[in-house]
């Protein structure tokens, strides 16, 4: 137990934990030992050994797969993760941003297309992805969202009925244990939820001053209050449910894999990078792995499953000879199977706009931070037990489906003097002059950040190999706004965000919209300026999908076309993005994959 406490705070020197109040938090944690998780132990497995199933990637999907497949006591499962254990900072919801741009992040960036995102450093978007057990589920915002029935029925139209809303809903319910006080007693809402799963979906009737003011302001703008933001039939403004249990982050790692970690048929390799899938006669027979610069080979008697995410899964497929023939031949890679791997990349496109307001909406001082730290350690309550709360779903005036959102707005509040500059520069990747402007505003006034997000972009990009060196990150061509229709809705959605300054409360705080002074947009007005701001400041909402898509790359049971014994199960399999945060759908995909694989194993 003491060892776990000593590990506390190891990743945080440059983030939230670097301040004085977090030093106090570390001290209390070490002395009281109130924070900790028992991660699955690292397995010492011999080179050349064989397992029934090999799972590549221990993130949100891989953790589910390893836990579920190891339920079959006669099936041996090897889980291989490129990172190690998460630091204990990851457990605290209030530290959700600490691990981005750290050693626990793959720190991917995108290729400059000389068109979009030119207000960002080098025209390049940041793409935080967790490099640790739990993957991005260990550094995300813990928001529980599913998307809408229209998203999955769209999948069903192209793939088959296996992936329609009616077929996926039971798999959301399977993992879910709903405790959200706003939903559990409402029979109409509760019927869409599960109550016996491993991952808690929580929420409280109590709210905060910040949350109440934001919700009231959006209600004044005409949005009705929604009790359950996952409800498939109603949209508006509301507070999200979260994967938080007893004030701590709950992920597929903490809820499933940790509890399976000591099974005798489950083996976990950490800090071990898979560099190639071994293929023989169009069959996956194992993987090549690098551990501390040494090469190892592990063999799969039944299947290899890639769960390495929207960037690393296609990278690994292409390094193994599965991908676009022309691209592989250009790199001198033997083509095993010509498939559209790496194509169809897309993401929710996020445009950040800012309001400056007088003090009082999210007021915080050093004393309150100290008290909140002590409160968190005492009963795991207070601000450190919470994360992003409010969301607004918008159906545009031109929409044919009024209860299906086209855009979302995610508001957050930064107290005066929060040191906004560091995160602005390193995580958001805005140009220095923009970060300096926002920092100067934040030294005098509170900042209301309004993330305006296109939930259903039509533009598509691609992932390509930079070289045949596994250490080189993939080339990420976002294709942002390559389809001009994706820009059309931004003026209306951004006007909604900016209209917040005209509401009663924010007028009382003398709120105003901050002009980021983007050079390319200075001479423009009206819709043209709004589109220019959106195009130049566009960034990823960190929900990239589609690069090993169902249909073009995989069949309906997630098997790679033309390659036996190889499946993919992660965000890369989504043929089109869902309208909402992607973690819960990734867990659902992994649950489906586990059942498909179990059926195959039992049949054999």
What is the CATH architecture term of the largest domain? Answer: 3-Layer(bba) Sandwich
Low-confidence stretches: 1-18
Domain count: the total is 3
Give me the CATH fold name of the largest domain: FAD/NAD(P)-binding domain
Reported for the largest beta sheet, the result is:
7 strands, mixed
- % residues in beta strands: 15-25%
**Average pLDDT level:** 93
| Number of helices in the DSSP assignment | 17
Characterise the protein shown here.
With 604 residues, this protein is of the alpha/beta class. It has three domains: 1-36, no CATH class; 37-87 and 252-343 and 545-603, FAD/NAD(P)-binding domain (3-Layer(bba) Sandwich); 208-242 and 349-454 and 482-537, 2-Layer Sandwich (Glucose Oxidase, domain 3), CATH 3.30.560. Helix content is 29%, strand content 19%. The chain contains 17 helices and 26 strands. Strands 1, 2, 12, 13, 14, 15 and 26 form a seven-stranded mixed sheet that branches. Strands 8, 18, 19, 20, 21, 24 and 25 form a seven-stranded antiparallel sheet that branches. Helix 2 (20-32) runs parallel beside helix 11 (366-379), helix 3 (60-69) runs parallel beside helix 8 (252-260) and helix 5 packs across helix 17 (583-603). The longest helix is centred in the C-terminal third of the chain and has 21 residues, at 583-603. Mean pLDDT is 93; it is low at 1-18.
């Amino acid at each position: 137990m003491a060892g776990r406490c000593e590990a506390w705070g190891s990743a945080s020197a440059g983030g939230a934990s670097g301040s004085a109040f977090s030093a106090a938090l570390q001290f209390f944690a070490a002395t009281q030992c109130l924070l900790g998780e028992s991660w699955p132990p690292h397995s010492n497995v011999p080179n050349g050994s064989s397992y029934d199933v090999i799972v590549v990637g221990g993130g949100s999907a891989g953790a589910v797969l390893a836990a579920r497949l190891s339920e079959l006591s006669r099936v041996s499962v090897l889980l291989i993760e490129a990172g190690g254990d998460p630091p204990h900072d990851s457990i605290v919801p209030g530290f959700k941003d600490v691990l981005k741009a750290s050693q626990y992040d793959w720190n991917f960036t995108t290729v400059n297309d000389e068109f979009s995102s030119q207000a960002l450093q080098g025209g390049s978007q940041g793409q935080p992805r967790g490099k640790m057990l739990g993957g991005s589920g260990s550094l995300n915002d813990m928001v529980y969202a599913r998307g809408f029935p229209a998203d999955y029925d769209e999948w069903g139209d192209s793939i088959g009925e296996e992936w329609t809303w009616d077929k996926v809903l039971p798999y959301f319910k399977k993992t879910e244990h709903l405790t959200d006080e706003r939903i559990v007693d409402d029979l109409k809402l509760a019927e869409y939820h599960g109550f016996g799963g491993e991952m808690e979906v929580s929420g409280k009737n109590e709210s905060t001053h910040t949350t109440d003011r934001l919700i009231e302001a959006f209600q004044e703008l005409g949005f009705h209050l929604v009790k359950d933001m996952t409800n498939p039939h109603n949209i508006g403004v509301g507070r999200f449910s979260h994967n938080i249990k007893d004030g701590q982050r709950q992920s597929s790692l903490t809820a499933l894999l940790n509890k399976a970690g000591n099974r005798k048929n489950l083996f976990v390799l950490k800090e071990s990078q898979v560099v190639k899938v071994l293929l023989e006669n169009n069959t996956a027979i194992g993987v090549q792995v690098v551990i501390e610069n040494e090469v190892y080979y592990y063999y799969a008697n039944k299947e290899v499953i890639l769960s390495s995410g929207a960037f690393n899964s296609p990278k690994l497929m292409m390094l193994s000879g599965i991908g676009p023939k022309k691209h592989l031949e250009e790199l001198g890679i033997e083509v095993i199977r010509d498939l559209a791997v790496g194509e169809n990349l897309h993401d929710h496109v996020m445009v950040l706009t800012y309001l400056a307001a007088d003090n009082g909406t999210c007021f915080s001082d050093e004393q309150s931070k100290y008290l909140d730290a002590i409160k968190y350690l005492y009963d795991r309550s207070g601000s450190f037990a919470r994360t992003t709360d409010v969301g607004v779903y918008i159906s545009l005036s031109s929409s044919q489906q009024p209860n299906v959102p086209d855009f979302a707005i995610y508001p957050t509040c930064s107290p005066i003097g929060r040191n906004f500059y560091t995160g602005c520069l390193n995580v958001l990747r805005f140009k220095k002059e923009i970060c300096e402007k926002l920092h100067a505003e934040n030294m005098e006034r509170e900042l209301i950040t309004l993330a305006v997000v296109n939930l259903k972009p039509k533009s598509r990009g691609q992932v390509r190999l930079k070289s045949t060196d596994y250490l080189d990150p993939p080339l990420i061509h976002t294709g942002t706004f390559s389809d001009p229709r994706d820009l059309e809705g931004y003026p209306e959605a951004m006007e909604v965000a900016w209209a917040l300054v005209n509401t009663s409360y924010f007028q009382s705080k003398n709120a105003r919209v901050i002009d980021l002074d983007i050079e390319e947009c200075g001479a423009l007005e009206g819709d043209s300026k709004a589109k220019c701001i959106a195009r130049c400041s566009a960034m990823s909402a960190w929900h990239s999908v589609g690069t090993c898509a169902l249909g073009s790359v995989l069949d309906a049971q997630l098997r790679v076309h033309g390659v036996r014994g190889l499946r993919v199960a992660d965000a890369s399999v989504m043929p089109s993005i869902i309208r909402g945060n992607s973690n819960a759908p990734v867990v659902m995909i992994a649950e489906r994959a586990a059942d498909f694989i179990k059926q195959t194993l039992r049949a054999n």
